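In the laboratory, one determines a bound structure by crystallizing the protein with its ligand and collecting diffraction data. In a computational setting the workflow is compressed into a single prediction: the sequence and the ligand go in, and a structural description comes out. We illustrate the idea with zinc ion.
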Amino acid sequence: MILMGEDGDRRDLAWMTLALDYAARGAVQGEVPVGAVLLDADGRLLAAAHNTPVQSHDPSAHAEMLVLRQAAQSLRNYRLTGATLYVTLEPCIMCVGAMLHARVTRLVYAASDPKTGAVESLYHLLEDDRFNHRIVTKGGVLAASSATLLRDFFRVRRCRKEAGAASVATVEAGVETGQRSGDATLQS
Ligand SMILES: [Zn+2]
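The predicted complex, in structure-token form:
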């Protein structure tokens, strides 16, 4: 079922708000703030998650991948026909691929991603009719909120890195030459 009109729009805003809430939780844990929510064909919540590649040492731990995995495991079915996936950032090629494999019916996302977006930015994978599955797509839902969350996250991280580099420089300036060559020997 594809939700249309005002009712559908309101529902999209509500679910995207939840996805943004998850994204913010990720930011607190030092993860790039991207959140996702997956609904079944009847609009019931199947799974919600935020990015965790850093803490799980897993390059595939994007929010979309995690909700697809959670839902498929709880339904004991890797096909998620009829599902709607909400995500706060335009999905990458990996996540679009996983959505196609899972037969997700509808994708709603917030901000576009000029660096890795595979829906409208870098690639237009979902417009490729060589795939035998179609995903109805809607972008730009609460895009400004998502973009602000991401911008703030990277701004804070940049500041911390600069502050960290400054304190490392101070420590290094105070360390004697002998100690530093000793450290180098231990590392080699
Ligand atoms: Zn991804």
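The radius of gyration is 20 Å. Keep in mind that any predicted model is a hypothesis to be tested, not a measurement.
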